[in-house]
Amino acid sequence: MWAGRHVVLGVSGGIACYKSCILARRLTEAGARVDVVLTRSATEFVRPLTFEALTGRPVLSSLWERDRALAHIRLAESADLLIVAPATAQLLARAAQGVADDVLTAILLARTGPVLAAPAMNDAMYAHEATGRNVAMLAARGWTFVGPEVGSLAEGPSDRPGRMSEPEVILAHAARVLGAGGRLAGRTVVVTAGPTREPIDPVRVVTNRSSGKMGYRLAEAAWERGATVVLVSGPVNLPPPVGVRLRSVETTQDLGQAVGEELPGADVLIMAAAPADFRPSRPSEAKRPRSEGALAIPMEPTADILRATLAARKPGSVIVGFALETGDAIQKARTKLEGKALDLIVVNDALEPGAGFDVDTNRVAILDREGNARVVPLASKREVAEAILDAVEERLG
After folding, report:
1. Are residue 83 and residue 103 in the same domain, yes or no?
2. Reported pTM
3. Which of the following is catalytic: 122, 134, 208, 362?
4. Residue among 176, 151, 166 nearest 26 (CA)
5. Which of 68, 218, 302, 379 lies 20 to 30 Å (CA to CA) from residue 356?
6. End-to-end alpha-carbon separation of the chain, Å?
7. CA angle 321–378–206, rounded 5-degree value
């Protein structure tokens, strides 16, 4: 996503400037070439040297810097993305009126490409009708906004928007601005993730070791490609990805119901969850004490959620299954692909080092219904997610 990208980070003067330092570092670590532009007031909060150390590049803070004539025009034209964070009330007002009295506003006036702004100011200032008009005017010109959020401000706690979004949130929105031109843009993607839990009694459950990481990375990556994403998740210890709509479920039956409700509008369904294949047939209404001795639990199979979607799938949709196997994984996956009428199936061996549960990496093969196989060598689950979504986009009309 970020390798080789050129980002201009404009920083106007507010206490949230400290977050801009983190954002500059995150962008640089991700592989972007980051040019930081500071307003005069921003230099009162963070010195240019700080950003130079974080990005490894010189900082521009004046139209009158020696040997940098017309740098503002070059930056306005060359950047893949211009981020303004923080975007103060004053900066928004000047930009809305076309004022170009410093290097950042001059860049903004000359800019024709995408701009992402993260407002940050006192909550009363953000609530003022003048600020609202300025934001609306800039949005009408094509600016994208992230935040502001509710939370503590420099002057104390607040229950109204004004606080600048966190760097990770801004980074996710920036990726979406850049990645929203593909075939997933404007599509609805439903992703399932994590395990399910089947009750033995009010305290104990039958479950599995799925962490949900693969599904969460898929939801994250699909949203950054411009999709509307619904994440149907079993119990996991992961924060929801930015921008997605989360539906939390517990049992396999809950999962099936949620998928059934979302399926009619889904252009893509990616079943990355690991629902329990069996459940106790007679859950106890009371906790069984250990003193009663050995416990035998009659089990029954759960419903096959993917097979149950056959009649309700949206015409032209892409359906992706997952197969976590032990031994002869490819053949078992092909049988599932054909039996459940899938477009793609992602298969990996649970016993392979680095490719099973509770790890941040995966090694998979992506099989299609034409008999082709695309092998993704050991990589981060985010990288694997990108490969899966590439295969999905190839099948979308």
Report:
1. yes
2. 0.88
3. 208
4. 166
5. 302
6. 23
7. 50
